[in-house]
């Protein structure tokens, strides 16, 4: 047996390699750079790494390859679009993360301990969050371009493990943050086990771990359909957990509420792009010829997810939990694009993922600004009269809420209209009706928050709006401008996506 060395196309892999290199440099900075210089050094390395990676993604936008990494990844139009979306969302998320007041002074200490108090008094700052963020982004970049099950699983763990740690780094409400991290880790481990089990069944069905090999078995009908159905089911559980779809959503509200708010925004936006990117590739290419077997169940899950997220969000009195259930509802809307299984569905899903991701980071950046002496204020009752305290901040948050509701002249309306139109073309009329009904329900609780901010008198309870730092201000301005621009004039981006978004097999 002759060993054949793998051939790697480093140019096509360069966006991910740059991120990994930047993360490793960040680890070395933690070890060798003085505490005083670490924050600015880590921030500079992280932003520089993300920008350089984005430039490389732009350079390879017209490249296509099935053999960039010995057949384990695929570079095509959707891959480039999803990677660019992840990087843009990551850059604006890092601007919010840079406000280190959100993170504990010493992650390894017990909450309330003398060790923690000493770390706070000496001005310690947790800067490990920067290399952790880069490692997570590298995993997110690899996830939607994986073309075999082993690489897909490695990417899943690579994006998940840093997020488990980052969820437990909150400066205040440390016990809630640690509980969120533990809950996310344990449920994530269970979902990974299901994912591995599904991989085993798909290998048993097709005798291959590559997407091409599994697809050939599905097209040829050469395997045992029972193994295929079980494998698809377990793989789907792992993916549906990452996007927070019902009934695999239980972690979302607690983790969103307990994690540091900048991490919540990053996780809610970028992870969805990566996970749905992988879902689109798997269902549009590998399982496309087995549509009869997964479309009915996925349609039921999408309908339940949309309705559940919209209805339960009405009862929430915490803004982060409300946005968590809103995120669950949006996962249902995005599943509609997977069910559509046509070119229009692919284009609409990519547009929706980018538009929703940018608006989500902006919304959570606003949440970080509403504070009292104890830190962030997330109780909606204490947001009363926010429009009179800070008209610009309240108006911007209202803009994001209107985008989530799908109101015209926002990116949310274009995204929902496009994704529902694609599903209608494919014949999924029941799912579209459920989606429109869910959007109407969701509009109620979004508008309720707007009424609370602008049409009630402020309560003198110590709540105030902190002046945003320069970086947080950049994130908010960029997010609201993109949200409105894509609602008023979405044609250039939609045309660009339509031109590029074609899977190669």
UniProtKB/TrEMBL annotation:
<feature type="transmembrane region" description="Helical">
    <location>
        <begin position="296"/>
        <end position="315"/>
    </location>
</feature>
<feature type="transmembrane region" description="Helical">
    <location>
        <begin position="12"/>
        <end position="33"/>
    </location>
</feature>
<keyword id="KW-1133">Transmembrane helix</keyword>
<dbReference type="GO" id="GO:0016020">
    <property type="term" value="C:membrane"/>
</dbReference>
<feature type="transmembrane region" description="Helical">
    <location>
        <begin position="322"/>
        <end position="344"/>
    </location>
</feature>
<feature type="transmembrane region" description="Helical">
    <location>
        <begin position="149"/>
        <end position="169"/>
    </location>
</feature>
<dbReference type="InterPro" id="IPR010096">
    <property type="entry name" value="NADH-Q_OxRdtase_suN/2"/>
</dbReference>
<dbReference type="GO" id="GO:0042773">
    <property type="term" value="P:ATP synthesis coupled electron transport"/>
</dbReference>
<dbReference type="Pfam" id="PF00361">
    <property type="entry name" value="Proton_antipo_M"/>
</dbReference>
<protein>
    <submittedName>
        <fullName>Unannotated protein</fullName>
    </submittedName>
</protein>
<keyword id="KW-0812">Transmembrane</keyword>
<feature type="transmembrane region" description="Helical">
    <location>
        <begin position="181"/>
        <end position="206"/>
    </location>
</feature>
<feature type="transmembrane region" description="Helical">
    <location>
        <begin position="226"/>
        <end position="251"/>
    </location>
</feature>
<feature type="transmembrane region" description="Helical">
    <location>
        <begin position="467"/>
        <end position="489"/>
    </location>
</feature>
<keyword id="KW-0472">Membrane</keyword>
<dbReference type="GO" id="GO:0008137">
    <property type="term" value="F:NADH dehydrogenase (ubiquinone) activity"/>
</dbReference>
<feature type="transmembrane region" description="Helical">
    <location>
        <begin position="80"/>
        <end position="98"/>
    </location>
</feature>
<feature type="transmembrane region" description="Helical">
    <location>
        <begin position="350"/>
        <end position="370"/>
    </location>
</feature>
<feature type="transmembrane region" description="Helical">
    <location>
        <begin position="40"/>
        <end position="60"/>
    </location>
</feature>
<dbReference type="InterPro" id="IPR001750">
    <property type="entry name" value="ND/Mrp_TM"/>
</dbReference>
<feature type="transmembrane region" description="Helical">
    <location>
        <begin position="391"/>
        <end position="411"/>
    </location>
</feature>
<feature type="transmembrane region" description="Helical">
    <location>
        <begin position="263"/>
        <end position="284"/>
    </location>
</feature>
<feature type="transmembrane region" description="Helical">
    <location>
        <begin position="431"/>
        <end position="455"/>
    </location>
</feature>
<feature type="domain" description="NADH:quinone oxidoreductase/Mrp antiporter transmembrane">
    <location>
        <begin position="146"/>
        <end position="441"/>
    </location>
</feature>
